[in-house]
Amino acid sequence: MNLKAFSIDLKNKKRMIPQVLTVLSILLAISYFTFNAQVNMDNRGIAFGFGFLTQEASFDIGFSLIDYDGSRSYARAFLVGLLNTLLVSIIGIFFATLIGVTVGIGRLSSNYLVAKFSEVYVEVFRNIPLLLQLFFWYFAALRALPLPEEAINFNDISYLTVKGWYVPKFIWTNFSIFIYSVIAAIIAIIFVSKQAKKQREEFGKHIPSFYIGIALLLAFPSLSFLIGGVSLEFEVPVLKQMSATIFNFRGGVSIIPELMALAMALSMYTATFIAENVRAGILGVGKGQKEAAASIGLTKAQILKLVVLPQALRIIIPPTTNQYLNLTKNSSLAAAIAYPDIVLVFAGTALMQTGRAIEIVSITMGTYLLISLSISSFMNWYNQSVAIKEK
Amino acid sequence: MNVNLLKPNKEDLSKYLMLGLGFLIIGFIDIFSNTFLNFNITSFFPSIISYLSPLILGAFGLHLIRIEYSGNKTLDKINKNLNSSNTNAILSLIVIFILIKYVPPLLNWFFFDANFLGSTKEDCTGDGACWVFVRVWFNRFMYGMYPDAEQWRINISFLVLFSSIASIFVLPQRFKKYIILFLLFVFPIIALNLISGGIFGLKWIETGAWGGLSLTFIVSAFALIFCFPIGVFLALGRRSDLPAIKYSSIGFIELWRGVPLITVLFMSAVMFPMFLPDGTYMDKLMRVIIAITLFEAAYMAEVVRGGLQALPRGQYDAAKSLGMGYWRMHFLIIMPQALKLVIPGIANTFLALVKDTPLIFVVGLLELAGMIGLAKTNPKWLGMATEGYVFAAFVFWIICFSMSRYSQNLEKKLSTER
To answer: What is the spatial distance between Cα A107 and Cα A99, in angstroms, rounded to a whole number?
Structure first.
């Protein structure tokens, strides 16, 4: 054996030993835990398996986006919880972005009062635990709302009460045609903007694609109303007397207080972080960039649209996606105020009924993991595609 | 004499100023009479105009006094900071009006109409907050169900913790190492034994009785102490060039970072006992601390990795050229520099940890928020939710705000030193 082969062999050994040890210890730990779990489950007479998902759930869920009652399966209950989680996350993300962008720009305002106000907002809401904010909104603020018979009235179409916020229900006929018309409009807008870009780059012609886009977005759906047979009616909530002393609203859609409290807490808390990201992003665009843009004669709006925003967004988007992910994960605090999200419905009620701790907790964690990993891998892909290509 | 209302100019400064201030004052009188006297002085207008009248009057007044380089320093300052354009003028007015409308009622609720003295709910006669509730329950909010006579044990533990942290900053460099070692290895054991008791004639106090704000600190302090070394090793693992170690570290980190803490706590409460040998029992608080430690270790690992990545390659090359091995290189050259870089990140992780601890209520441990939940359902103290949560929010806000300010200062200091 020559010396070179020996040294490679030695180097390999040095690399292999820690790896083999790591893998072995992980395997050992897993098999130890699996063995214990097996023994424990045998003792309690339960077998590992996901068969219970098809069994009848036999519990009711207070708020559901799809048809559900106690006779449906556990899998259906899981789906209800998942949809409720996604619903509150989407609402929360929408409002968090809205408030966050407003406050973030407000912090950079030349107006002293607006800047100070935004700063106080960020410092107050960022430094109070989300759970406490949630409790405050749910147990203190929303509980102070009036009873149905004294509801806060918004122009006789919407009512805010302690039992929830009643809004008109949309009753569509031929809803699918409407959706198709919106999709058609979006396709047309993409086509027009591509054409406009081509015209601009090849012939230097400027086509107002933005206004054409808005016109298309209005024209297609209204055509669907005129000739497509689509119609929309509103079902307005009406106050009804249930018994001698109990009043409540019938008709319309009721937004339950749990959903309101959760959406408020999530969006106001996450908005502070988004505001800081927006501020950092705008500050991150160098002054020279703006001056250079102004010196070649761009207008203020053009500077913002063509120079500042594209660069600021590159700084803003990655941490903001992280905040969206955090918001989705934080929506699991729903369990604290009994909003039927995936944790409460599945890891709470379903677990209590079936006793299948391992399966249910794994499914719940797996679902969150799947959401997180898919969003973060999408973001990695996006980041790579917008990253500055250095030559 | 020509006063052009649309274009104020410098020549007729005093006229514009008088006129503008006049409008502004009428606007403010309107909002004051609306808010405090319940009297609408512009009720002869249609309702929407009447509603917006203070804003319109104020905005017009501000428009009239917007004169650049007027020579009057106060006026120039106001114009620059509050009144640089019509939009800014309206925004300033909206903020001022919101303050006028909502700050006095809030102050009334907090202080002027609030009740501070007494011992029962009936002592709260005012319209404002009933701080008697917080006074009566204060001890419970701080110490949970921990027996009153034994509370000195918690106090002493925290006194030792804070004074040793403080001495890190005061004592000379060469003692720092020992204090950090003491904090990492000796202190947890002493504190745990002192608080739980059962030895040296101290009364045994089961963890179920621990609670309140002190539990928040106990959980976050232990989780921080334990998650730090795990995070360092995970970060090294993630940057290792040995594939098995690298990918198991990545898997571990991403697993914990991808799930919400609440599901991790559920896991520790219902799933983890299934994985223990039959018949063994692990304390609930212990399980929670382990769960939070592993969870935060993943975040800590990412923070430390940030520091490792920020170090220039030359540091590694230099250490290697001195003949240092992997461990010597990392612990003598790389880690001290990397950790110094990420001190603000570590502080932020700790901040997040403190803000996350109220979640332990899902497994039945009652820290501050949980104790308030318990107190507000006490039949003698119903309807005190607002006071309780406002108090808790205030306590947490003070802790978190001072910590975040401290970490911001640190960030500034470290960034200028380099």
So the answer is: 12
Report yes or no on B210 lying in a domain. yes
ipTM of the complex: 0.85
The domain that contains A314 carries what CATH number?
1.10.3720.10
Answer yes or no: are the C-beta atoms of A159 and A237 closer than 8 Å: yes
Q: What number is the average pLDDT over the span B118-138?
A: 75
pLDDT tens track for A294-335: 899 888 788 888 888 888 888 888 888 888 989 999 999 888
Place of tokens 């050992």: A28
Q: pLDDT tens digit string along A190-232?
A: 888 888 888 888 887 777 777 888 888 888 878 877 777 777 7
Residues 64-103 of B with CB under 8 A from A: 80-82, 84, 88, 91-92, 95-96
What pLDDT sits at residue A225?
A: 78
Q: How many domains does chain A have?
A: 2
| pLDDT given for residue B397 in this prediction | 92
Mutation site, B130, B264, B271, B303, interface A, largest A CB count within 10 A: B271
Q: Are residues B141 and B100 in the same domain?
A: no
Q: Is residue A246 part of a domain?
A: yes
Task: Say which of A136, A336, A372 has its CB closest to residue B258.
Answer: A372
Kindly state whether B244 is in contact with chain A, defined as any CB-CB distance less than 8 angstroms: yes
A136 and A19 belong to one structural domain: no
Q: How does residue B418 score in pLDDT terms, banded at 50, 70 and 90? A: very low
Which residues make Cβ contacts (< 8 Å) with residue A203, sequence separation at least 6?
A: none
Task: Give the Cα separation of B167 and B341 in Å (integer).
Answer: 22
Contact criterion met (CB below 8 Å) for B57 and B91:
no
* A336 close contact with B: CB closer than 8 A: yes
pTM, 2 dp? 0.85
Residue B380 burial by CB count (10 A; 0-12/13-18/19+): exposed, middle or buried?
exposed
> Is A29 within 8 Å of chain B by CB?
no
Nearest to A230 by CA among A270, A190, A303, A180: A180
Residue B57: give the domain boundaries.
13-108
Q: Is A173 helix (H, G, I), strand (E, B) or coil?
A: strand
